[in-house]
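WARN  no MSA supplied for this record, continuing single-sequence
INFO  ligand: glycinamide ribonucleotide
INFO  echoing inputs
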Amino acid sequence: MNVEKKQIDRRCIFPAHRPARLVVLVSGTGSNMKAILDASLDEGYGAHIVAVGSDRNGTKGIEIARQAGIPTFEHQLKDFDSREEWNAAMRDSVREYVPDLVILAGFLKILNEDFLKAFPSRVINTHNALLPSFPGIHGPKDALEYGVKITGATIFLVDPGIDTGAILAQVTCPVRDDDTEESLLERIKEVERKQLVDVVGHMVREGWWQEGRKASFGSIKR
Ligand code: GAR
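INFO  complex generated
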């Protein structure tokens, strides 16, 4: 009998540390990072932010982290001879803090494969649209212009593409007829922050898994 063996490429991850160590990367206001910071003040949350990094100097997100006494680092692409060198600097700075999870929270640059290989299945991103619709850095504007009635936010495991990684969670947000780009963005961000805090909490307390394009947290799929 010819029994075909199905190749299962499943990766299950449990944080090595308790509380789990989070490194968060930001490019701007850092309200998602701040939401995690606030949640982590509760010991039961199961994680704490050990460093915050940015690709820009003087962002609000970095300022919030510094005020909270969290170590920070900033690497601007323009200060490096090549994109590879910038990626290597980001990778080395993140690695220094031995993260269980790396969170891109409004980090608006693409990280290359070398970076991702250093933290396999451990880099997540939050995006302000329901992927695979409206990837990139103008999710709410693109959704509004397209005329969709429902949009939202997506958390995914980062791969080398632009917002193409395996989806961990999604939350919806209705689009109103009188929405502007700003009003829609702010309403999405309210549900986005809550989702990020919830999902990161589940991941660090219960572990997470990835099998091809399928990924989730909590009870590990057998
Ligand atoms: C968030 O809405 C996030 O989804 C978006 O940047 C915002 C950052 O807000 N990221 C992307 O568009 C990535 N493709 P914050 O700095 O206040 O957390």
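Residues 181-206 form the longest helix (26 residues).
INFO  checksum written, moving to next record
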